[in-house]
Amino acid sequence: MGGKNAGGTFGAEGTDGTTLREIVHVSIGGSSVRVVLTNEFGEDSLTVSAAQIALSAAGGGIVAGSSVQLSFGGHPSVVIPPGALVVSDAATIKVAPLADVAVSLFVPTQTVSVITRHNFADTTNYVVAGNAVTAETLTGAKPMYSWDFLKGLDVKADAASAAIVTFGDSITDGAHSTRDKNARWPDVLAARLAADKKLPRLGVLNEGIGGNRVLHDNTGPSALARFDRDVLAQVGVKYLVIMEAINDIGHAYDTKKPFDVVTADDLIAGYGQMIERAHSHGIKVFGATLTPYVGAGYSSPAGEVVRQAVNTWIRTSGKFDGVIDFDKATVDPAKPGVFLPAFDSGDELHPGDAGYKAMGDSVDLGLFGR
Would you call 115 exposed, middle or buried from its count of C-beta atoms within 10 A (0-12, 13-18, 19+)? Predict the structure, then answer.
């Protein structure tokens, strides 16, 4: 099981007779997968004339003999209406845990005024002219750093397996981690789960969007607006980790240009809505404290008071099924509200690789045995 989010943007890649080869890092392995394609933000129908999945090799290549043609209701091509998504037929391909797979899509020339994409892939994907979905190596390909039209990948698992949705903003998305290294904190968590033989197989679905907020739209719909699509509609979800609100706080209390002002109580109410909606679907919810932000471009003393209030509520309210204290894992003990220098990426808002590792390593795996 694995997944990524999509947000609407304007663009031209993949709409003029080109092949997109997009790389996906899976968490748990299996022998059968489904690919989810999306036109959810599109205003025109989207045609995908050919699609394939294969094991990924270096530089946009695929492992010889590993490719499998994707079909949609038994057909090799599909037309996705505006606002819709499609799920491929199950494809038989043996995928190891923590493997990289390549999904290749040929998008013929057509009018697509709005591309549905996840802007920040933190992964090198490729675009090349013409239909090259079956090519083992790509000639003349250009790199791209988004996932276009590709929403997610489902790996078939046994009945004892389940999924964990990590729901948040850029700090869950992995901003400022090293590209192509899968160093986001959900990746660290997935690797630890894969190595743990006591727990059932647990897939990790990264549903972070950079710039996202709990209560207001910004980059992509707000957490409340996208909750059904990105949490409840995912396959096999048993656990949810929520880490979101730093952008609400940063913008609301920015000393230079505050907007969409919210209070700690407003954010807590938003969290409460997500907890209730998840619980109504039998999903256990873990609250993750907000990491340090003092010194960030939009930080302020007033915002820090709100961040601390939200974190105190997460730790002590008893509303969650468990707490993951990312603030404690990354803060400088001598400077409350400030990242430990070794964990800071340099902007005093996002962790670097070491910080993301500290976050992923701090998660108590026992939470997922309940």
Answer: buried
